[in-house]
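4.2 Preliminary Data

To establish feasibility before requesting continued support, the project team ran the inverse folding procedure on a target of 499 residues. The structure was first converted into the token representation described in Section 3, and no sequence information of any kind was made available to the design step. The complete token record follows.
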């Protein structure tokens, strides 16, 4: 009688198989392993269904407690955590390493006495190793100095950010609250997207917040293995239950966002917050994208912070503050907001089309100063529109900047400040320094200073160090020529004119 002991580790089962012949034994072993495999597959699927059911219920619980989970966290920005506390980790170069790298032979005084060439060869290798070592040491020193310079500048920016927030500087306030909302921990599948705008006169913050769509909120309540189909089947909430749960989630997100903003405002720059909730998606009937603002609420800080949010019913709380919503939120009905974010700075005015008649201008240096401002913004508007990435507007004199470029390109993009200077003499360095100050104040990416005249070496050096592009009259003529406009720019030595 032949026999063979077999086992299945997953099932924790073993069996002794017996047979009279080799073929019979192999067949019995094969059949038993097949049976175990089927049993193992079933058990694995059942275990997977149990695991998925637990994960699904956990996901629902996380969304159901979106508001509650925020109440036990600190939302005041931790300035210390923003500081760079790293140390330079690269090791100091070792001369021994380079002696080994160039394979400096060991000193053998007897052989080198007999064969002087051996000594010369060793000494040359030592010189080569020293050169490599000194070069590496210079690189190391430069990298270390740059590391600590960047660290110092980063920490300085954080300290300035803190001071500016506490002083109530508008852009710092906005950046502060953006950081607060970015740091807020939501369930993994929740994609945060929002815009903020602050009005220093009314001390009001407007929040335009993207709410999760219907299919972005978890709705699976059970995963079950069906033996007859040999697969896992998902079971979702009843439609009526899901609608109630979905509405509650959106109200919770609304209250949570307002709470986190108010509770983090330790410098007391806010009196009110307006929260506008948006839904974005694709209309399955038309295949077109839709964007609907479905929630709007204005909350007073003093009144809101008196709430015991742990026990409120989110929908009732929303109504207490006279929030606006049309019917049940799951219907995604658009509403008119209490107040909306104005993305167009009121300092911007309409551009005049100077390019249309530029070819008839005899000399750019003799243009009216206001027309020259419009010419510059027209030119940059045309230049950036060729790439489909930017728009250019013109600001009033109070802004200290003649034009602003908003470039949405993910690599080169950002906010550029443009200043036009119609001079008939060398542009003074003070003009470049003024633009640098405006860049810092506006938190812009870079600046562009364009003139009918030219810049001196001090201005060029300062511009290079402060991310400012200088464009002289000759370059302006070239840019206009590239766009198909034939002009000239000839300065006359006379008292400079500025605007």
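Position-by-position output of the design step:
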């Amino acid at each position: 009688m032949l026999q063979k002991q077999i086992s299945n580790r997953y099932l924790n089962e073993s069996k002794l198989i017996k047979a009279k012949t080799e073929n019979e034994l192999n067949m019995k072993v094969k059949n038993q392993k097949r049976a175990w495999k089927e049993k193992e597959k079933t058990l694995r699927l059942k275990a997977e269904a149990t695991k998925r059911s637990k994960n699904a219920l956990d996901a629902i619980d996380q969304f159901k407690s979106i508001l509650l989970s925020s109440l036990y966290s600190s939302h005041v920005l931790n300035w210390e955590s923003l500081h760079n506390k790293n140390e330079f980790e690269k090791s100091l170069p070792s001369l021994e390493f380079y002696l080994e790298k160039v394979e400096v032979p060991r000193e053998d005084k007897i052989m080198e006495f007999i064969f002087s060439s051996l000594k010369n060869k060793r000494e040359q290798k030592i010189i080569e190793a020293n050169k490599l070592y000194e070069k590496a040491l210079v690189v190391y020193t430069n990298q270390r100095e740059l590391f600590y310079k960047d660290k110092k500048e980063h920490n300085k920016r954080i300290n300035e950010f803190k001071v500016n927030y506490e002083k109530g500087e508008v852009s710092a306030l906005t950046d502060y609250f953006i950081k607060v909302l970015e740091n807020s921990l939501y369930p993994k599948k929740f994609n945060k997207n929002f815009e903020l705008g602050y009005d220093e006169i009314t001390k009001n913050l407007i929040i335009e917040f993207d709410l999760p769509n219907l299919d972005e909120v978890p709705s699976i309540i059970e995963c079950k293995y069906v033996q007859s189909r040999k697969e896992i089947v998902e079971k979702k909430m009843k439609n009526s239950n899901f609608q109630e749960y979905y509405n509650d989630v959106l109200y919770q997100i609304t209250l949570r966002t307002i709470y986190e903003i108010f509770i983090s405002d330790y410098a007391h720059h806010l009196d009110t917050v307006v929260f506008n909730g948006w839904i974005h998606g694709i209309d399955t009937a038309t295949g077109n994208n839709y964007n609907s603002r479905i929630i709007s609420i204005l909350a007073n800080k003093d009144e809101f912070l008196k709430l015991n949010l742990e026990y409120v019913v989110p929908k009732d709380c929303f109504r207490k503050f006279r929030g606006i919503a049309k019917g049940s939120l799951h219907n995604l009905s658009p509403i008119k907001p209490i107040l909306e974010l104005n993305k167009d700075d009121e300092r911007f005015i309409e551009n005049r089309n100077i390019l249309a008649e530029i070819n008839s201008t005899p000399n750019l240096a003799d243009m009216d100063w206001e027309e020259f401002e419009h010419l510059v913004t027209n030119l940059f508007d045309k230049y950036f529109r060729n790439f489909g990435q930017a728009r250019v507007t013109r600001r009033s004199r109070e802004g200290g900047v003649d034009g602003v470029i908003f470039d949405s390109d993910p690599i080169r993009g950002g906010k550029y400040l443009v200043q036009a200077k119609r001079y008939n003499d060398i542009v003074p360095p003070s003009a470049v320094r003024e633009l640098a100050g405006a860049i810092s104040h506006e938190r812009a990416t870079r600046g562009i200073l364009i003139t009918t005249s030219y810049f001196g070496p001090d201005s060029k050096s300062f511009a290079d160090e402060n991310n400012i592009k200088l464009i002289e009259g000759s370059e302006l003529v070239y840019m206009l020529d590239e766009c198909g406009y034939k002009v000239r720019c000839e300065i006359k030595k006379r008292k400079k004119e500025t605007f």
